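Hey all, sorry for the wall of text incoming. These are the three entities for the joint prediction.
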Amino acid sequence: MAQAPKFIGAPIKRRDDPRLIQGLAHYVDDFNPPGTLHMACARSPYGKANIRSVDVSKAAAADGVVAVYTYEETKGIGPVPVGAVLPDAKVPVQPILADKQVLFAGEPVVAVIAETRYGALDAAALVEIDYEPLDAVVDLEAAIEPGSTKVHDDYESNEAFKWGLAGGDVEAGMKEADVIVKEKMTNVRVAPLALEPRGVLAHYLPGEDKMTLWTSTQVPHKVRTLVAGQIGMPENRMRVIAPEVGGGFGSKLNIYREEALAAFVTRELGVPIKWVESRSENFLTTIHGRGQVGEIEMGLKRDGTITAFRYNVLADCGAYYQLLTLAIFTLTGLMLPGPYKIDNIEMNATGVFTNKVATDAYRGAGRPEATYILERMMDIAAVELGMDPVELRRKNFPDKSEFPFGTSAGLSYDSGDYHLALDRALEAADYPAMRAQQEEARNDGRYLGIGFSTYVEICGMGPSAALGGQGWESARVRVEPTGKATVFSGASPHGQGQQTSFAQIVADGLGIDANDVTVVHGDTDVVPYGVGTFGSRGTVVGGSAVVYARDKVRAKMAKFAAMEFEADENDIEFEDGRVFVRSAPEKSAGFADIAMMAYSAIALPEDTDPGLEETHFFEPSNFTFPFGTHIVLVEVDPETGDVEILRYVAVDDVGNMINPLLVHGQIHGGIAQGTGQALEEEMLYGEGGQPLNASFMHYALPKANRLPRFELLHTTTPTDVNPLGAKGVGEAGTIGSTPAVVNAVIDALSPFGITHIDMPLRPERVWRAIAEKRA
Amino acid sequence: MIPASFDYVRPQSLEDALARLGEHGDDARVLAGGHSLLPVMKARLADPGVLVDIAGIESLSGISESEDGITIGAMTTHAEIEASASVQGRCRSLAEAAAAIGDVQVRNRGTLGGSLAHADPAADYPAVILAANAEITVAGADGERVIAADDFFTGTYETALGAGEIITSVRIRASAARGSSAYLKAAQQASGFAVCGVAARVALDADGAVERIRVGVTGVAATAYRATSVEDALTGAAPSAESIRKAAATAGEGVDALDDFYAGADFRRHLAGVYAARAIGKAWIRAAGE
Amino acid sequence: MEINISINGESRTFDVEPRTLLVHLLRDDAGLTGTHVACETSICGACTVLLDDKAVKSCTVLAAQAQGCEVTTIEGMANGEQLHPLQEQFWEKHGLQCGFCTPGMILTANQLIASNADPTDEEIRHGIEGNICRCTGYQNIVDAISAAAAQMRD
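and here's what came out:
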C-alpha cells in the first residue's frame, strides 16, 4: 500500500452488530426447518458404573417419539476423534453412546428422537437404565497411587502418558543457585461456559445425497472432515455451517458425540434433527480447561538471577481425550521460561485418567498454567530474597536488543520490549503511590495488596509443523463486477469481529470503503478449506491470508488498469474508489469500471484470465509472542475473606492493531475470565464423580459488580512473522490476569505470613488461610 | 430443563383458591411469583399435578401502613418491598433484605409469601422475619390464623403452614421511637443466596441502653434462627462497638451449621459472628441517630 | 390451554401446554428467537424480556402466568428503522462480542434507565448483576448503558 492506511488501525464499529442488537441473528437453535425432530439423551448420573441393562420401551412408546438409539444401533459410528497424539500415550476409544460401562457423569447412553423439544426431554427421562455404580477416580494425586481404583479396567493404571521437556541442565542450575524456592500449586478445572451452549442441526436430503450440518463450532472444516469420516460419508457430500456462534473460548474447538449422532440419525430418517445442549449437559460433557497439580522448584542467585526452573506436574485428562487434550500441557512446557532468561528448565508431565469429562483447550490453553506458576514463583522468590517483585522481574528480562530471543524451551520469541511495557504500567499505576496507599491502609488495619504479572504468550497458532499439522489459514478475495469486494475466510470467528477487521484489511489494500467489503465465513460449501478460530490466530494467520489474497486480486486488477491506461502495471494506484496511474493521475477510472472489465473480458491483458478472485493459504514462519504487564490493586477483608479489586492496569503489546476497539474488547473479556479463575471458578466433583456445582446457581462466573474498570494501555512492537505485524490478542487478558490477581491477594495477606493460597481465592479459602496463620 | 406436565388453574378469589387446594390435596401447589417453585419443578425435584396460581387474587398484593406497623400482602414482590417508602421507614432491614435478593429480574417476580412458604435455609427474609417478630397471617379451609415468626420456620423447606393453607399477609410492627434495624449478608457468588445473612432490630431507651434487641440469622443453619445469646448479652446496657463485637461473636456458637463446597460449617459460624456484629452495629447507629 | 398475550404491541393467541415456559412460547411458538436460553436457572439473564414493562427472566415464568400481559422482546425495541438508544450505544461502544447475552442485557438496561435516568457506573453494574456476559468483561456494556441514558435524557 502506498497511501497511509485509512481503515487499518481505526476503531471502526462492528458490522456484525445490527443483527445482534436487534435479535435478528441466527444461532443454531434459531433455525427451525419444517419437520425438524428433536434429540435428547439419557445420560449417566454416575462417574463410573456398569450398565446392567437398558430398557427403552417406555420411552419408545411415549407420545411423539419417532426413534430411540442405543449403542447397538450406533456402534457403526466412528469414535470421537482425537487430534493430538503423543508417543506411548494410551488412547482410549470414546464411543458415541456408552455400551457396557459409563466413565463419567453425563456420558450419553441413549438418544431419543421426538417431534417436540419437550417430548424428547420427557422421553429421555423415561429411559430405564440399570446401573451398577462403581468407585470413581476423582483426585489426581490419588489416581496415580499404586493400587488406585482405575478409570479404564483394561489399563494397568490411570497413567495416560509421560511427557517431558528439558532445556539446559536443571540439576546444574539448581546447584548454582543460592536460594531454591519450592511450592505446590493447583490449576483447578474450570468450565469454559460459552453463553450459547453447543447445538447441532443436521439435515440430510436423500435425493441430493447431501447433508447440511449447522453446528456451534469454532472449526467447521474440522467438523466436516471428521464427522463425515465418523459416519462414513464422503466429506464433500457434507456442508457444515457455523452460523452465529455464541462464544467458544476453546470449548467449541472440538468434535463432540452429538454432532456425529445427529448426522447419523438424519441420514437414517431423512428429516432435520436438532439437538441443543442444556446448561447442565454443558457443564458435564463440554470440555473443561486447566486441571494441573504440580510441584515447582526455582533456583536463584542472591542478586535475583534465575538459574533453574522445574515443574513436575500431573495433568488431568478426564476419562477420554477430546480433539486436543494431549496438546494442551505441551504448550505449558513451551512457555515455562516466560519472559525471563532462564537457561535451565525442565517439565515432567504425567497424564492422568479420571472419571470426568475431558480437559482440552480453554482460552489460553496451557499458557495460563505456565504463566501462573511462573509469576507466582517470582513473587514467592521476591519475598524470599527480600527484593521488590518489580526488580526481580526486571533483573531477568531479556533486553529488546536480544530479539529474536531463543529460549531454553526451544522457541524463538519474535520481538519484544518487556522493560518498556513494565515501565509504562508502573507509570500508569503510579507504583510508588500505590505502595504508599498500601502502607497507609495497613496502618489503619486494612489489607491492600499489589500484584504483578509480566507475561509473554505464544499466539498466532502457528507453523503447521510445530502444531502437528494445520497451522495455516486460508482466504479468498473476490472483487465483484460491481466493484464490491467479498472475503471468504477459512477462519471461523464467533464474536471476535473479523467481519469488520477483515473488511478493513481489504478496503485499505484496494482503496475502497470498508462498507463495500463483505466478509463470509463458517460455511464449508462457500469458503476455502480452512482451519478455524482459536489460539489467537484469527487475525494473525487468517488476516494474513486475507492480505495475500487481496494483493493477488489487486495485482490482477492493476493489469487490467494498466491495459486500459496503457501504463505500467506497477504504476497503478488504488485510492478512494478510483484506480489511476500514479505518474499520470489524470488517467483514472472508477474501481467498479476496472472490475467490470475483468468480468466482461472483451479485452484481456497478456497472460491474464478473466475474473477477479484469488485464494491464498498462509503458512506462518513462526508463532507470535505478545507480552505485557498487568498490575492489580486489591483489598481483602480479613474477617470475611472477601476480595475486592480496586484497580486494574494493563499494558499489552499485541503488535500492530487492526481495530483497537476490538483489541480492547478482547482484553477486557480476557481479564474478566482470568479473574474468574483466580477468584471464583472451579469445577468440583464428589466422591462418586458427580459434579457438585454444575449450574450457574453453584458455579460462579464474573459478574459486572465484581469487576473494576480496566485501565488499558499499549506498547506496539510489531512482528515480522506476518504482513500485518499483528501478534494476536484473544488470550492475552486471560493469561496476564490470573496471576496478577492472585499475587495481589497474597501481597495483601503478607502481614499474616501467607505466601501462597491455591485458586480460586473464594472467601472461605482466604479466611481459612488467615485463620491458620493466626492459630 | 422443563417441568413435568401439570394442570394450571388461576382462581380470582381467595375462597376459590382454597377450594381448589382442598379439592386436589397434596397434588396441588400454590404458585405465587414462581421464583422458588418453578426452579424446583424444572429440576424435577417437585412434580405437582396442579398449580394454583394466586396472582389473580388482588387482595393478596400491596403494602398498607397503620400507626403501629405495616401489613404486606403475600403477593407483594421483592421489588415493591425494596422500593416502598413505608417499608423503608418502618422496617429498614426488610427493605434491605428485599434489595439483597437475587437480581432485578428476580425481584420483579419473586414474592414475599412465595419466599416464606418455600423456606429455603439460605433465603434472606427469614432473618428479618425473626428479628422483626413478624406475624404471618395464613388462610385455610377453617379461616384465618396468625403464626408468630418464632413458630413459622420449622425446618429446611418446612414451615408451620398447614395443608391447604395460603399465606395472605405479613405484619410487622414499626420500629420503636429510638429503634431501627439492618440486614447484611455474605452472598454465595453464584446464586446470590445468603451464606450468612443477619438481621438485627434494636430499640434503645432514653438513656441509650438497649431496651429490646432481636437478631435473626439465615443461611448458616438448616433453619433460620434467633441468636438469643447475642440478644441476652446486649439487652439492658448501653452498647459499644466492643460490647457488640464481643456479644455478636457468639451468634454462631453451638449452631449445627450447614456445610457445603462453598462454605464449611466453621466458616459459616464465624461469619454469623462477623455479620451479627456488623448488622447490630449498623442498626444501633441508626437507632441512636434516628 | 389458550393464552392471549400482547407481544411487541401485537395481540396474539397461542394454544400451549400449561407447563410451557414463556421463553419457549416466544421462541418456538411466536417465532421470536432474539430471546435466548443460556443457563435455564434464572441466573444469566439471557432470556430477559419485559413483562408489563418489568424485566423478568422468561425461563422462570410460565407462559400461562403471562396471560393478558404485555411482553416486549428485543425484536420490539427498535422503532422501525430507528434503533433504540440502547441498541445504538451497544453498537457504538462495542458492548457486545458474541451477542448471545445482548438482547437480555439491553432489556434489563431498559428497565434500569426507566427507573434511574442518570445511573452511576456502580448503579449500572449493580443493575445488571442478573445478566452474565462471558465475552466483554462488562466495561463496554456499562459505558453503552451510561451513554444510552445520557442520550435518552437529551
